[in-house]
Design a protein that fits this description.
2 strands, ligase activity, ligase, PHD-type_Zinc_Finger, two-stranded antiparallel sheet, G2E3 ligase
């Protein structure tokens, strides 16, 4: 059983409660709930109340998973039941073009010795 929050690495109760959440799939990922963060002192604990909601908002429905086991079935259901809004959209990092370079094709022959019988310029536009 986990006794440490996997987000802030501080002790949590060893049972689920208003102040402690556990991933229903792996039962190894323990978190402070957003309610617990409100009752604790210090700025790091005040931020904890927004962590899971922030992860859900950023990842969207298709990519929000347990940070420990990566489960997205039971974890999504549990988070939804606990009131964490999970938007039905693509992850925010995809809308910023973070992976655009992966779809680009190489369009210039830069081999030291080109072996193409038609030369370096052949199929230049297609890569």
């Amino acid at each position: 059983k986990g006794d440490t929050c996997i987000i802030c690495f501080e002790a949590v109760e060893e049972r689920t409660s208003y102040s402690t959440l556990v991933c229903p799939a792996c039962r190894n990922a323990w978190f402070h709930s957003h309610g617990a963060a409100q009752h604790r002192q210090g700025p790091s604990h005040m931020l904890l109340m927004f962590v899971l909601k922030g992860l859900a908002t950023s990842a969207g429905f298709g990519c929000f998973k347990c940070p420990q086991c990566r489960d997205d079935g039971a974890f999504l259901v549990e988070m939804h039941l606990l009131g964490i809004d999970i938007p039905r959209r693509s992850p925010s990092w995809e809308s910023r073009g973070a992976y655009a370079a992966l779809s680009e094709r190489h369009s210039l022959c830069d081999a030291t010795r080109c072996l193409c019988p038609q030369g370096r310029q052949y199929r230049e536009g297609e890569g």
